[in-house]
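Support request, priority: normal
Reporter: lab tech (M.K.)
Component: structure prediction queue

Hi team, I submitted a job for Probable membrane transporter protein from Cereibacter sphaeroides yesterday, and the status page still shows it as pending. I've pasted the exact input below so you can check whether something in the sequence is tripping the parser. The sequence length should be 277 residues. Please let me know if I need to resubmit or if it's stuck on your end.
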Amino acid sequence: MELLSSGTIFALIAALAAAGAVTGFLAGLFGIGGGAISVPVFFEVFRLLGHDPEVAMPLAVGTSLAVIVPTSLVSAYGHLQRGTVDKDLLKVWALPILIGVALGSALASVAPPRLFQGVFVCVALLIATKLLTGGKWRLSEGLPRRAILRLYGAVVGLVSALMGIGGGAVSNLILTLHGVPIHRAVSTAAGVGVLIAVPGTIGYMIAGWGRPDLPPDALGFVSVATFLLTIPTSILTTRFGVALAHRLSKEWLARSFGCFLLLVCARFLVAMIAGDG
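Reply from support: The job had stalled in the queue. We restarted it manually and it finished. Here are the results:
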């Protein structure tokens, strides 16, 4: 692998610190893990370091999940203090989410990069469309029976493990489709991040364990160096996102997040069309 210049190394460190700051802020603001920011940034960093897309993408996803662990804990605690987390729903979702995450993590060891990117684009486009059309879509005005809720939990875990996100975006979509107010959905989604990130991180470590083409600092598909460079700024900004989430209007939050998701989708679509991973 080619040695990087000191300027390039500094730029990489700065990019990771910035990604951590935005990841933490989004975790608090939208109740999401921030993987929509960290996955593409980590992917580009690992590509620049000389890793093939077949390694760079699962490594980006696994490392993103590791970063989501502390940010989701801080975010969930902040929302819990404001009394807007649905703890009963989190109890129902705990086991199904774990099963979904385990399946998604197992797929990480055999799936091509285009699967990760394709899942990301499809789900994010659906969420963005809902947000930008005013969020008026409804399946019902209340949560469904427990059997359906458990199925939802498994889907949230599976999709989130493949996308490298904390599940907040997907669970937000599900909850608002069933009439849950946006601020309660955001707060509960922060708790979902905790349920997904911990087993997801462990699963990606196991999926990549022993591979010879990983960087020397990696534990399976988790880069320890990237994790350590990203965490300080992400922890710092999470609490600011939580505070802002309870001050801004739901319309502003929804439309801003929708625009952000469209930009991320565009980035992955360009990469897929160009065959660049």
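The longest helix spans residues 53-81. The chain is about 75% helix and 0% strand. Let us know if anything else looks off. Ticket resolved.
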